[in-house]
Amino acid sequence: MRCVNILKSVTGCSIWFRVRPDIVVKGQEFEGLYNREKGVLDSYGGRLVFSSGDSFFSSQDLISKELTISNKSIRNPSELVIGDLIVDEYISCEALGMSQEDPTLVVKPIEAMKFLGGSGIVAAHAGGLGANVKYISVAGNDEAGAYASKKLEEFGVCSEIVIDQTRPTTLKRRYRAGNKTLLRVSHLQQNPVSLSIQETLFNAILPSLDGTHLVVFSDFNYGCLPQSLVERVIEACSAKNIPMIADSQASSQMGDVGRFKGMLLLTPTEREARLSARNDVDGLVVLAQKLLESSKAKHIFVKLNQEGVLLCTRSSLNVESWHTDKIEALNLVPRDTAGAGDSMLISAGLALISGASIWEAGAIGSMAAAIQVGRIGNLPLSCIELEKQL
Length: 390
Description:
It is a single chain. By secondary structure, the protein is α/β, with parallel strands linked by helices. Mean pLDDT is 86; it is low at 5-12 and 66-73. It has a nine-stranded mixed sheet with strand order 8-7-4-11-12-13-14-15-16, sandwiched between helices. The protein has a four-stranded mixed sheet with strand order 6-5-9-10. A three-stranded parallel sheet has the order 1-2-3. Helix 4 (119-128) packs across helix 10, helix 6 (195-208) runs parallel beside helix 7 and helix 10 packs antiparallel against helix 11. The chain is built from twelve helices and 16 strands. The protein has helices spanning 14-19, 37-44, 59-70, 119-128, 143-154, 195-208, 227-239, 270-277, 284-295, 340-353, 358-373, 383-389, and strands spanning 3-5, 23-27, 47-51, 78-83, 85-98, 105-118, 132-139, 158-163, 170-177, 180-187, 214-219, 244-248, 265-266, 299-303, 309-314, 322-327.
């Protein structure tokens, strides 16, 4: 059906003979007046419609309807999450002032809180959103590793943690005062895990692929996912037609999200996308399209912090063309931005395998990120929270 919206007065009616629209829409103010195009429309069965342009609908009803349809595809999906395990510690401080001896801020610690982080919270998010989760990672033989294992059990995540005696569990401490982060101190080791640990990880991953609907690479570039291991897992997933999604963080460390080939979804920041593409020149849309092509991914979300997210996907009609769109940030007063990308990755990935379109998945991922940045520390998402956000 061809529908034409009249934005300004028409000087003649010969256009209607050539275009022959089924419907011509004019403003409500033209109703009851003489409309010279009506005679032409009547001659071939066209219609003239008057409308104010206002539409009234519930976005919640629309999205809920789509989610209801989507959930018929896969109920309680099984998911495998692999990547770097991290423990986040937040130390709340009272600012005492400036030192008189040197230009240093002096604080007094008041309270310390620990949270499950890294790929561990990605697995916990998935469990909170209704997935059956298996989680595989590496930890040190230390207090932080024991804490992470305990929290995973509390969150109902079935985990298999390989103990590496040569490295500590990654522990990130954030010193905060007045709702602002003053300093971050990370206890970690960034070199790749040994070949024997890699083999142990792969031997745990391979049987876990049976019955799995989605594999998630949650890479923080702290050594848990060396390239050789990643390639073996991708090959095994491809052989079983299991969709994969990936995120590779590069904030204070170096990373390459493009090394995860053939993903259903990649979610880099702009900096991570430029590092992977070695491209500091092109605009965001061109950058996303080039990364999409080089990584052989199906969809890419370029995270833009407070500016929202850019969605880029291949056209279903032409593999050489792309569609892009942008979703603005849904929380303009974030309390803590840590973990926003993790929540977006897993919620959007679960939406995609449940039948959602890339645009619906982007909206759901953005809502999940908005929830996450509205609180201090990482806590698992839930379907109830997403419904409230809607």
